[in-house]
UniProtKB/TrEMBL annotation:
Entry's Gene Ontology BP terms: translation
One Pfam family, short name: Ribosomal_L28
InterPro entries: Bacterial_rp_bL28, Ribosomal_bL28, Ribosomal_bL28/bL31-like_sf, Ribosomal_bL28_bact-type, Ribosomal_bL28_sf
Gene Ontology CC: ribonucleoprotein complex; ribosome
Keyword Ribonucleoprotein: yes
Tagged with keyword Nucleotidyltransferase: no
Superkingdom assignment: Bacteria
Organism of origin: Kineothrix alysoides
Protein name (Swiss-Prot/TrEMBL): Large ribosomal subunit protein bL28
GO-annotated molecular function: structural constituent of ribosome
Classification via PANTHER family: 50S RIBOSOMAL PROTEIN L28, LARGE RIBOSOMAL SUBUNIT PROTEIN BL28A
UniProt keyword list: Ribonucleoprotein, Ribosomal protein
Family: Belongs to the bacterial ribosomal protein bL28 family.
Amino acid sequence: MAKCDICSKGAHFGNNVSHSNRKTNRIWNSNVKNVKCKVNGAARKLHVCTSCLKSGRVERA
């Protein structure tokens, strides 16, 4: 899974815990999109999480 190029948010790891308290591995993927953004006046494709898009840290091209 990709990491956000702005805030470096990536996948998080943990456990599924059943009712009988058995643990199995689990992964939470962050919502990362491949977006065309303006970088120094030029358009580039970046991996950006939706929280960075929503907050306005990135200007879309």
